Amino acid sequence: MSVLSRYLLRNFFTFFALVLMGSMGIYLLIEIFERLDDLIEANSPISLTLAYFFLSVPHILYELTPLATLLAGLLSIMLLSKYLELLAMRSIGVKPWKVILPLFLAAFFLSSILIILQAFYIPKATVRAQEILQMDFKNRPQRGIVKENRLFYLGDNSIWTTELGSPDAQRLKNVQWFSYDKEYMIKQFVAASEAIYSGDKWIFKHGLRKLRNDKESAHSVDTFDTLSLDLAEAPEDFVAVKTPPAQMDMVSLWRSIQRLKKSEYLANEQETVFWGQILYPFLGCTLLLVGLPLTMSRDRGGLSIGLGLGVAIGFIAWVTWSFALSLGKTGIVPAFFAPWIVHLVLITMGYALMRRLRF
User: Does the pTM exceed 0.85?
Assistant: First the structure.
């Protein structure tokens, strides 16, 4: 590694650490004030409060790293420009790519670490943080859980175990439903290959029902092709338990996509989120392709200019990213292509700026 590369990387990682810690501090401060009422009302122990914010940090890191990468790169170049080091490099014939390449590779390294964390750790930490928020701070008991695509739900004197056959839970597969009395004795048991919600009733198909006869203290078992039951639980109750795609890890998300496609349901939202999780960490790399040539084209500039320019570019990219993902989720553009829109635009702009750069 050359002396120039080491010098650039030292400045880059210094600024990256400062920007990331500063932006995380602001983010956490806003989060504390937003949750302050819930924390006071819940009167939770300090250890639980610290656990919630500690588990929230990985997701905050994931959200802020691309912007911190961009700002670190711009501030590194602005520092060189402020002390006329860029001018000195020009005078001795240093090529622009020798300045840009080390910073780009550093950004790629950070993006690679981020995508590994997103694949294996960040979603799990986020889900646990949400459990603490809902159950301990907001005192909302958890009525159900989804494990290995199977839903376990505690209803109104009943228990459901089923697979969600559709994203809106209007159709269930491999259903088992139990109802019990005050003494937790099973009154009725229904097992069916499928259940469809229609007309405020659940229609079970191709299964068996076991009923308890209180007078004879015996059970009767019969099979059925269709069985209509008016139950308290609705599809909305099951959807509320399901983990949102944005909080799922990549492996679970990919399996969910394959199940939906196999059942001939649209998986636009899940597929868009999946590709977005892969491509979002690399947003810092493509942002640098635009930001660095813009900054290097200036003869002089202070760190405040670099900071302002980075925030402006990052905000525009974030708005465009959100808009592109919404197009993918609604099916207006292919789910695979939606996250690429911002990257392709930034790469094209970066290439054009590099061609015009006179260094």
Answer: no
